[in-house]
Amino acid sequence: MRDTLQNVGFEQIRKFLPPGEDINMGNDFLVVDVQQHDSGSFIDSPFRTDAFLAIFCEKGGFDVEVNLRKFHIQDNTLLVCIPGYIIKVGKMGAGTTLYGRIVAMALSRQFISDIKFDFSKLFESRLMFFYDPRIMLTNREMSFCSKYFHLVKSILDTEITTKTTAVKSLVESLLSVIEGMVNDGRDVEMEPSRSAQTRLNILFERFMSLVSEYHSTERGMTFYATRLGITPKYLSRLIKDISGRSAPEWIDAFVIQEAKSMLRYTDDSIKEIVYKLNFTNASVFYKFFKSQTGMTPSEYRNR
User: Fold this and answer.
1) Pick from 247, 181, 254: which is nearest to 214 by CA?
2) Which of 91, 117, 178, 226 sits CB 3.0–4.6 Å from 172 for a disulfide?
3) Domains located in the chain, CATH noted
């Protein structure tokens, strides 16, 4: 039976996370704390959510697919999933046990917009997250993050009137810590200036957001450059300089991911996929798909 991809709103995301103690703040912030010795499994239906997800695995292990790429999560691993990513968490194998702790944190778009953390600091890292969403942590780093969750839980268990503000401040601080963990040891460009680099990163993120939203219908550089208020030539150079990949390559990456998802998780015919992805005809789609994957769409679906 073919898996069906589900688009999951924040209010539904709880059922896709492992069983554990909920710590929540309305429909904007959720932490699930799993501390058990258990041979159970996660729900393995693929889903796409508009929430920001961070899953901290202190001890244990499970398999996960993110954007149709398979990864193994193990001790001291942080899994970062940005809104729009396709996620499928595999069942734990027979006889597999989970010791220790897994903490899953979900933030809604509204929560993200309300806090003061500058997400543009993480946008450069989005390049890494797109291909490998894992961050390996040291024991000390994992312990440090765990203290944040304990403090958040303690605050939410109180009746103080300022707990919402306090929790948002703690989350801002934790995100800053994660940003530091992600970027530690990476080369930092000294040119252009810090303010100019920030602007370039913001433009890059806006481009990526537009591609995420419009890749099914818009392939041309003029569309994205116009939406960003810059010339296509400048946009091409900017994307290449920041990411090392051209803008068309990024557009193709999103399109092929969407095509694979539709082939894997829907019963849409090739003709329907060609139409939904705005290809001129099936021949063009077949040529594009094979150039990207080395397989025809039918071969990929039936493998």
Assistant:
1) 254
2) 117
3) 6-183 (2.60.120.10), 194-302 (1.10.10.60)
